[in-house]
Every structure is written in structure tokens, then in C-alpha cells.
Amino acid sequence: MQFLILNNGIKMPILGFGTYQIPPEETKQAVLDAIDVGYRLIDTAQFYKNEKEVGEAIKECGVDREELFITTKVWINNYGYENCLDSIKESLEKLGLDYIDLVLIHQPFSDYYGAYSALEDLYEAGIIKAIGVSNFYPDRLTDICLFNRRIIPQINQVEVNPFNGQYAAQANMEKNGVQMQAWAPFGQGRHGMFENETLKKIGEKNGGRTPAQVILRWLVERSIVVLAKSTHKERMAENIDIFDFALDEEDMMEIMNLDNGETLFFNHQNPEVVERFEDIS
């Protein structure tokens, strides 16, 4: 496993296991399997409704707590200073932990300034080891870095995949000293991601690698922390098996040429999208 050093000196695995859309009844075993094949970064969120099951897996996995890097995220209905403090206390109880390695503000709406201020206080108290944001576009990230913080975010977790490469956003994060983290690296298979001829060709060139392995390696070589999700142990093992090959400059350019600069899911700057988040808060 490779690691990156965040702007506060914390070491973070570059490849992690995501638990979004894994039902609670399947989460514990999935996390146990992921840890067993080598994952040490486990990503959950209040919105995923599976923090408790992630915590059960952490307790039973047999790996020292200090070797694990656990992330959760604060949902919109827990924004504001006091609400955020209360929600983190609840997340700690569900996870069964004394501290959380990373906590993110999940969406760039509502009173995320108040919530971020609460994260800063918990960070200074040692209850959270790193803090950050998720789905913050360059303008909002720059805003919170310059005007609304004591502590610059360590992470911004955003959608990154070959069709939405986020190159300009990564440059903005690097300018602000914020580490990029990728969700949905496979785009949930949209646009024929796993059947893409370019990705298949690059995989064949590099020893018969799958398109999924090519995508993960592409992100690692861009120094982007990436989350991969599967409920199948053999696929988990396949996804983590990306540290014994490298893409050359031609490979990287071919994948870059797949980028069309558009989200495969939803645009957080679209007013209709913002309205939808009110319904699920």
C-alpha cells in the first residue's frame, strides 16, 4: 500500500474501501473482507446508515486500531455548530471509536460554515485527526480555505473518473494545499466504463489488467486518494492489486483524452439539484 502525507502531517492510505450503497446488513462482512485483503482506509458517512456495522467490523477485524484510517461524513441535517458536535458524538458511538481519522462536510449546502467550525474544534481537541470537505467545487473550496476557517481542509472528496477527470479542480486543490480524494472512480459503470476500448487496450498492454485496475492506477499516479467499492471479496482483492505496475506517459494521455469535463451524476451548481438535496436532508 502507498501512503500520502496530508497538509497536517497525517499519513493516509492512497487506496481505500468505500461503503456507499452497501446495505447495513451486508456492511459488516464487506468491511471484514476488505480489511482481510489489505484495505486499511474505510470510508463511511452518516448518510450511508451503516456506521454501526462499520464499527462492528473494526472491533472484530483483529487489526490494531492505529493501522486503520476511518472516515465518516456529516450530513446536511446535522450542519450548524451544535448539531455537528452532537452528530459526531453519535458517529463515535456508532463506530465504537475514541477518535475518527477523518471527518468531512458531505455537501456544500446549508450551514456548512458552522459545521466546519465544529470540526475545527474537535480537531484541536484530538477527537478528529483530520478534517475536510466533500463535493466542494473550486470556488467554494477556495472560499473556505481563505475566509471561513482556522484550519485548511486536509481533504476534498469529489467525483473523479476517466470521463470527469477534474484536472482543473485538482490544480486548485494543490494550490490551496488540499488533498484530492476520488469517489465513484468507476462511474458506477456508466457510459460503458468497464467496456471502454481505450481502458481495455491499456490494460492488455500492462499485463492483462482490467479496466478497473487501470482506472485505479491512473488515479494513484495522479496522487489522488481513491475509494473502490465491492461486496465481492475477489473483486476487492483485484482492486487493491495495482501496486506492481505503472502506466506510462502515453497511457496517461490516452485516459486524459477521455475526459469530457462533465459529471456522470449531478452538478452541485444546478439549482434543481440543490432543491433535491433539501428533500433528502
From TrEMBL:
Entries under CDD domains matching the protein: AKR_AKR5F1
Q: Which Gene3D superfamilies match?
A: NADP-dependent oxidoreductase domain (3.20.20.100)
Write the record's keywords in alphabetical order, separated by commas. NADP, Oxidoreductase
Q: Tell me where in this chain the NADP-dependent oxidoreductase domain is found.
A: 16-258
Q: Does the keyword Mitochondrion apply?
A: no
Molecular function (Gene Ontology), one example? oxidoreductase activity, acting on the CH-OH group of donors, NAD or NADP as acceptor
Any stretches that span the bilayer, and where are they? none
InterPro entries listed in its UniProt record: AKR (IPR020471), Aldo/ket_reductase_CS (IPR018170), NAD(P)_OxRdtase_dom_sf (IPR036812), NADP_OxRdtase_dom (IPR023210)
Which family, according to the similarity comment? Belongs to the aldo/keto reductase family.
Q: What is this protein called?
A: 2,5-diketo-D-gluconate reductase A
- Naturally occurring in which organism (per UniProt): Methanobrevibacter gottschalkii DSM 11977
The taxonomy runs: Archaea, Methanobacteriati, Methanobacteriota, Methanomada group, Methanobacteria
